[in-house]
Design goal:
4-stranded antiparallel beta sheet; Aspartate Aminotransferase, domain 2; globular; about 40% helix; 15 helices; about 15% strand; about 375 residues
């Protein structure tokens, strides 16, 4: 007899990450693979984080601090917030999941997101299940905050705004966000997913979610150690919000949701501003190169403020993705990102960028003439 799994769960789509390097090597029999699909840090983790993990490895037999006191204390000192406002998670993905659990409860509840945006927001809504309201991005691939405000009803409980947005890399400006927040009820929780914060924070008009938290608003600012800090493989994320929301998260989360190695790595990474600065500087050069590479083959790049760039080729980009894969270059096809004519490419090292540029020049003219 089949298990009686809830129908809404079976309608959910499993998350599809970028293809792993080893899998591509096995499938295609290649020795050299360049992975530019998952927005990872090409320089790897901070040397301070590596040393901290090595030192802590001998204590892996001991349960981690369930309260993550040292990590929260380091974040509190760095960002100027009380420890009661700081959440930690097994990546910011877990915090997205938990926010859905604590704020959505019935099929009539509504959650609003941009479209396309990060797919894990959808999962938070479908798991309840509640009403998922997807508001198309504007013609510049940016969140349409005017349309999102108009979509708010008495049943709206939660709104996600990825800033910068994934998969487009675009941002909303502070003036736009301030206007949006002034137009919606103050009891709606607005999540500013700032996974790519470090790559956009130099812009004068880029809003900092923590500033809104300090004002006492029902705002959640999400940050991650996976991008600028280079800790994607160890899974640790931060959230900043009101003590009330944080208390509910602590009631709903697993007892030891952030492992001991992730905690010490996070503390060390927060102290390594030099590693982040090096990453951000390389990233800006990489974005410029990606935009130029896309234009050179007739594609239209979308202005990005993240550590990746997306371009519209004006026709299905799946064949381009597959042709690049055959050459050992892993990118991200827009087919799975609700942008079928687009390709998303992460910023890599100097060598990786050269390999990508050469591969793109090789495959696109051939496919165009076919």
């Amino acid at each position: 007899m089949s298990a009686r799994i809830r129908p809404n769960v079976l309608r959910m789509q499993p998350y599809l990450p970028g293809k792993p390097i080893e899998e591509v090597k096995r499938e295609l029999g290649l020795d050299r693979i360049v992975k530019l699909a998952s927005n990872e840090n090409p320089f790897g983790p901070s040397p301070k984080a590596i040393a901290a993990v090595q030192a802590a490895a001998e204590r892996m037999h001991i349960y981690p601090d369930g309260a993550a006191f040292e990590l929260k204390s380091a974040a509190a000192a760095k960002f100027g917030l009380p420890i009661e406002s700081i959440m930690v998670g097994n990546g910011s993905d877990e915090l997205i999941h938990l926010l859905g659990l604590i704020l959505l409860g019935t099929e009539s509840d509504e959650m609003i997101v941009g479209d396309p945006s990060f797919s894990r927001y959808d999962a938070a809504a479908h798991l309840v299940p509640c009403q998922l309201i997807k508001v198309p991005l504007d013609r510049h691939y940016r969140h349409d905050l005017t349309a999102m405000a108009k979509a708010v009803t008495d049943n709206t409980k939660l709104i996600f705004i990825a800033n910068p947005n994934n998969p487009t890399g675009t941002i909303v400006r502070k003036s736009e966000l301030d206007k949006f927040l002034s137009e919606i009820p103050q009891d709606i929780v607005v999540v500013l997913d700032e996974a790519y914060f470090e790559f956009a924070s130099h812009l004068e008009e880029y809003p900092d979610g923590i500033d809104y938290v300090k004002q006492g608003r029902n705002i959640v600012s999400l940050r991650t150690f996976s991008k600028a800090h280079g800790l994607a493989g160890i899974r640790v994320g931060l959230g900043f919000t009101t003590p009330e929301i944080n208390d509910a998260i602590n009631r709903a989360r697993e007892p030891f949701n952030v492992n001991c190695l992730a905690q010490v790595a996070g503390v060390a990474a927060l102290s390594d501003d030099e590693h982040v600065a090096k990453t951000v500087a390389n990233n800006q050069k990489g974005l410029d190169r990606l935009a130029a590479a896309f234009r050179s083959v007739g594609a239209t790049p979308i202005e990005s403020f993240a550590n990746f760039a997306c371009a519209d080729f004006g026709r299905p980009a799946g064949p381009i993705f597959k042709a690049l894969l055959q050459l050992g270059v892993i990118t991200r096809s827009g087919e799975g990102l609700s942008m079928p004519t687009c390709l998303r490419v992460s910023v890599g090292t100097e060598e990786e960028m050269e390999i990508f540029e050469a591969a793109l020049q090789k495959v696109v003219p051939v496919l165009t003439s076919a």
